[in-house]
């Protein structure tokens, strides 16, 4: 009898230790919030922390942050597409958050729409659509959609890849090409939308695409832009000098890219001016699309793109005229492991500087701050 009681006490004690360990570990584990379609998170309420933009405090909104589609453990297939009612609820919450943050944003966020923004907005007069380009968020596919809607090709699959980014051949007009009165009219009457994704994951995509893989063969990123960043932001001066002499061999490190993007002392602005149009791949959403001024009718999220696309096409009135290209399974999912790997060599102070620059993007579109990178 005493032996049985002893075993029970040992078992109870072991369970107690397991519980204590789990409670301790939970303090260091950060989960992404539930997605906008109302799916439950593992350990978060889904309330966005009270954000600060500039010197203003934005009232906390019980809006879940964006997340990838849920996957069934048995079928490994994405969850069913949301109904029109679901989308209306999601879209309304996204636009309400955008409006709330804009009202409390700094004056800079409400600057007049400039030519840089107008250059980013593509126009489909035939169907009265305005699409703001946000690089590294699947813009190639949306350009194909617009090209088809313009009548140049019957389907997106038939649009040649080399045509999409050749603006002298794809017949996609930018809003900046119109007169001021024509611009005002289109901004007032056309259906306007943009697509966003987690800001830090977007920066990783830009770094990989331009400085590592460079699939479209844009050599100036490696031969001109990378060496310029290395010279200013590589702490090892001898290595930086070697990079200036042999940029292809030295290579740009992600940490140096982060230092450049998070620089606030004016040096980055000088480089941005030198880099010209290339900065669109890491410019903020506010800089690219002026979401506080333009008044977009829909905001899609890369993480829920498969579910957003049908309703954006329906909102534009073109769902029967064009099909969005097939989305490979899992490609739009937020990948925290990848983010942690890239930021592993970046100090907490450098991450905070980077976040300070892109804080507006996190707040405007409901992305939770990446606390796990500096905690």
In terms of topology, how is this protein built?
Layout: H1 2-26, E1 52-53, E2 56-57, H2 84-104, H3 115-118, E3 121-124, E4 129-132, H4 139-149, H5 161-164, E5 173-174, H6 180-189, E6 191-196, H7 199-213, H8 220-233, H9 237-245, H10 247-250, H11 254-262, H12 267-275, H13 285-289, H14 291-294, E7 298-301, H15 305-315, H16 336-342, H17 348-364
Parallel strand pairs: 4-6, 6-7
Antiparallel strand pairs: 1-2, 3-4, 3-5
Please provide a written account of the structure:
The structure is a single chain. The protein has helices at 2-26, 84-104, 115-118, 139-149, 161-164, 180-189, 199-213, 220-233, 237-245, 247-250, 254-262, 267-275, 285-289, 291-294, 305-315, 336-342, 348-364; strands at residues 52-53, 56-57, 121-124, 129-132, 173-174, 191-196, 298-301. By secondary structure, it is of the alpha/beta class. α8 (220-233) crosses α11 and α11 crosses α17. The radius of gyration is 23 Å and the shape is globular. The termini are far apart. Mean pLDDT is 80; it is low at 15-34, 39-78 and 243-249.
Summarize the structure in short.
The protein has 17 helices and seven strands. The chain is an alpha/beta fold.
Mean pLDDT: 80
Order of strands, main sheet, comes to: 5-3-4-6-7
The geometry reads as globular
Largest sheet geometry: 5 strands, mixed
Strand content: 5-15%
Number of beta strands: 7
SSE series: HEEHHEEHHEHEHHHHHHHHEHHH
Q: What is the count of DSSP helices, taking H or I runs of 4+ residues?
A: 17
Helix content: 40-55%
Class by helix and strand content? alpha/beta
Rg on CA atoms, Å: 23 Å
Question: Please, what is the oligomeric state?
Answer: single chain
Uncertain stretches: 15-34, 39-78, 243-249
Distance between the termini: 50 Å
């Amino acid at each position: 009898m005493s032996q049985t009681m002893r075993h029970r006490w040992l078992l109870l004690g072991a369970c107690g230790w397991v519980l204590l360990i789990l409670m301790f570990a939970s303090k260091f584990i950060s989960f992404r919030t539930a997605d906008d379609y109302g799916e439950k998170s593992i350990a978060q309420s889904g309330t966005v922390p009270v954000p600060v933009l500039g010197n203003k405090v934005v009232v906390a909104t019980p809006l879940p942050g964006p997340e990838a589609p849920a996957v069934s453990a048995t079928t490994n297939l994405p969850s069913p597409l949301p109904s029109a009612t679901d989308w209306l609820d999601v879209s309304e919450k996204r636009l309400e958050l955008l409006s709330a943050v804009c009202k409390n944003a700094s004056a800079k966020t409400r600057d007049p729409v400039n030519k840089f923004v107008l250059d980013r907005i593509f126009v489909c007069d035939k169907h009265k659509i305005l699409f703001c380009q946000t690089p590294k968020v699947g813009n190639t596919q949306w350009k194909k959609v617009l090209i088809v809607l313009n009548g140049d090709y019957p389907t997106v699959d038939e649009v040649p890849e080399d045509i999409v980014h050749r603006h002298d051949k794809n017949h996609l007009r930018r809003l900046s090409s119109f007169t001021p009165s024509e611009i005002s009219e289109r901004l007032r009457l056309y259906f306007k939308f943009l697509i966003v994704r987690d800001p830090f994951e977007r920066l990783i995509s830009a770094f990989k695409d331009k400085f590592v893989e460079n699939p479209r063969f844009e050599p100036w990123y490696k031969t001109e832009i990378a060496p310029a960043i290395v010279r200013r932001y590589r702490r090892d001066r001898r290595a930086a000098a070697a990079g200036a002499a042999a940029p292809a061999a030295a290579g740009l490190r992600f940490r140096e890219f982060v230092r450049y993007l998070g620089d606030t002392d004016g040096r980055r602005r000088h480089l941005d001016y030198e880099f010209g149009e290339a900065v669109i791949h890491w410019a903020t959403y506010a800089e690219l699309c002026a979401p506080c001024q333009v008044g977009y009718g829909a905001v899609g999220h890369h993480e829920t793109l498969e579910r957003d696309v049908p309703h954006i096409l329906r909102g534009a009135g073109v769902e029967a005229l064009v099909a969005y290209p097939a989305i490979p399974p899992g490609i739009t999912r937020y990948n925290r492991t990848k983010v942690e790997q890239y930021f592993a060599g970046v100090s907490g102070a450098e991450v905070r500087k980077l976040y300070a620059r892109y804080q507006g993007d996190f707040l405007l579109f409901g992305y939770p701050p990446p606390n796990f990178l500096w905690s």
